[in-house]
Amino acid sequence: MSVHNIEDLIIKAKILQEALPYIRYFHGKTFVIKYGGSAMKDEHLRESFAKDVVLLKYVGINVIVVHGGGPQINEMLSKLGIKQKFVGGIRKTDEETMHIVEMVLSGDINKDIVALINKHSGENIYAVGLSGRDGRLIRARKMKEDFLKEIGIEIEEDIGYVGEVVSVNVDLLNSITEKNYIPVIAPVGVGEKGEAYNINADLVASEIAISMNAEKLIFLTDTEGVKDENGDVISSITERDTQLLIKKGIVKGGMIPKVKFALKAVNNGVKKVHIIDGRVEHSLLLEIFTREGIGTEVVSN
Prior knowledge:
Layout: H1 3-26, E1 30-35, H2 38-41, H3 43-58, E2 62-67, H4 70-79, E3 86-87, E4 90-91, H5 95-120, E5 126-131, E6 138-142, H6 145-150, E7 163-168, H7 170-177, E8 181-186, E9 188-190, E10 196-198, H8 201-211, E11 216-221, E12 236-237, H9 239-247, H10 255-266, E13 272-277, H11 283-289, E14 296-298
Parallel strand pairs: 1-2, 1-11, 2-8, 5-8, 11-13, 12-14
Antiparallel strand pairs: 3-4, 6-7, 9-10, 13-14
């Protein structure tokens, strides 16, 4: 073996050694990962994500994946000739649309992610797909106007079967993770009468992280993180910082509810929330197992 090859191996060994304190500390802890954006569409990134999730499970971290699927829903509705309408950035979801939303999220997307993770797992670790309706995992109700205003959305019409989380079946999730399964959750909730609700995946991830007293909540996005007025990524923000950025119009659009759900999580027991760029290969590992990390860390005041 050449000296050059030995030096390369030493560098790899040092990288593993750098990760050791994090592996030790996070062993047995729970991470909730919101999976969406390019990381769900690009085949190379999909494979990278699945391998990273399996690695986290093998080093003793209880991983829970919550996925989105807006673009895939749009595509299916277009194919079926069903007219789509968005109000304040929220999909107006009538009974027919809700049927398609559930079919795409709980069917195609969910099972595809499960199969991808299982492709890279061994004999002792498996992913299992769940909808919020399974075992009444996510109890939901129609999203209230006050809740919408809280996340910066004001609407004047009925948006149908769009829900907010009432409660999470923690016992079900604990029983799954304790048996070395990786729950992969579609953001569909169940109402009092058994009806389905379409719920924002960021919101579902935040509520699950709170209910599970998670160590980390990680949002995989198509942006490098939360940026300041100069377009530079802010490494760490508090609630005070966020309110100022929203007021100035620097944090806007879909990033507003994301940071608000992140803040709710850290203010309700989740140790840390990270908003990171899912377009970067192995972004999960870079955030969790390196000193520098990437993206924006959301912390309580």
